[in-house]
Design brief:
With 214 residues, the chain is an all-alpha fold. The protein has one domain: Hypothetical protein af1432. It is globular.
């Protein structure tokens, strides 16, 4: 029954997000799923809950859906219809509803499964893939690559994080460079360290080229 639920969740995620061009496509979901299972193995988390939450996490992302609460209700109903027990279903919905960055002010994840899935999603925002996704998403929503007249925001509410004008370059300083220090699990901390250094090197090169330097 669990394997069938996973297969159906994969199919649903592919149908909903398979054609996304802003870095939240099926391939992102698949990377998060693989990383979540890897982290779950090290952390002793329930692999089923981690895999299901990873597969469905973007179906209620406020960047992608107009009403995240309605999307969460849809996910809860879908889980029940596909044989997922009430306790697991509530756990999966809780993870999906609380894992987003939203300006960095959210509470810590309650369970080890939540911490694992949050780490897996955040790791996909780092390193080479994270850089590529940043510029893909910024182009999709009409944000400029860089504008020196728009400074990075130091503190912001979730509403400001989503609504105020920003740039792809600023996103590194407003979110991505903070993620390595916010990882929950030891395995994710190790992986994030190298990806963080790669982004720092990229930004140094970006800034030099922006100024016309070698």
């Amino acid at each position: 029954m669990r394997r069938e639920a996973v297969e159906q969740a994969e199919r649903w995620a592919r149908e909903r997000l398979g054609g996304d061009s802003g870095g939240h496509d099926w391939h992102h979901i698949e990377r998060v799923r693989r990383m979540a299972l890897r982290l779950a193995g090290e952390a002793g988390a329930d692999p089923f809950v981690c895999e299901m939450a990873a597969l469905l996490h973007d179906l209620a992302d406020d960047k992608l859906v107009p009403d995240p609460e309605a999307a969460l209700r849809e996910i809860r109903a879908w889980l029940g219809e596909h044989g997922v027990g009430p306790a697991d279903a509530e756990h999966i919905v809780e993870i999906i509803g609380t894992m987003s960055f939203r300006g960095g002010g959210g509470p810590p994840m309650r369970t080890i499964e939540g911490r694992v899935v949050q780490d897996a999603d955040r790791l996909d925002a780092l390193g080479a893939i994270g850089i590529a996704r940043t510029f893909a998403y910024s182009g999709r929503v009409g944000r400029p690559m860089h504008d020196p007249s728009i400074p990075p925001r130091e503190r912001m509410t979730a509403e400001q994080y989503r609504a105020e004008k920003s740039t792809a370059y600023n996103h590194f300083h407003e979110k991505l460079l903070k993620l390595s220090s916010l990882m929950n699990t030891e395995a994710a901390k190790r992986i994030a360290e190298e990806r963080h250094r790669f982004m720092e090197a990229f930004l140094a090169r970006f800034e030099a080229e922006w100024e016309g330097k070698d």
